[in-house]
Prior knowledge:
247 residues; Umud Fragment, subunit A
Amino acid sequence: MTEKKRRTPPRRTVEDGSFGKVAWEWTKSLAVAFVLFLLIRTFLVQAFKIPTGSMEDTLLIGDFLLVNKAVYGAQIPGTHVRLPGFDEVKRGDIVVFVYPDPYNEYDPDPDYVKRIVGAPGDTIEMREKALYVNGERQVEPYVRHVDGLDEQYRPQFKWQSRFLAPGVDPEAYRPSRDDWGPLVVPPGHYFVMGDNRDNSADSRYWGFVPELAIKGQPLIVYFSKDTGKPIPWLDEIRFGRIGSLIH
């Protein structure tokens, strides 16, 4: 009886070029995903984190927002051209915009978030903390005040003299944080303020926001954490704010 020969299973070999083919497919998938990410971030939705308390109690430090960039029409990068939007910027909107520096140039970092309180052509002023638009006192339930009336002259507000309403003497104009104006908002620009009125660096200090500087409107808080809590990632997560809409 003869011993059966053991059959050695054939060695599996990688076909020539198969590794390169797989690598190429992965590369294409990653490239497509990256392009889609850039398109979504540029024209549709962008994430934004609240760094300061200027919008409290509407928005808190540590809130992470999704910003709708299509609502007003996203700007085509490198141009002054906007895609068609489905809404217009209006008073009461909370917007994310590129911070205008004193020389009307734009610093791409950081973005700011404030509320529109004055639209092109509006006459706006503040009397003893109360905001007036076109002569009417505004009802602002979202506004927060943390200290008393401040009537100290603010040299930072000197820029306002160029936009005073007719009949106001620029030489005698002495604006303070809580008493200023009336100012006329120029075409293509907006006056913005933080909801935390006594603790907000806004249009009162550095001027109007050009329409092209507005990037979008915050929609929802997708995550929120209070970094002041003693136990990180346990106490600090604000579960009650996650998923809340922004008004």
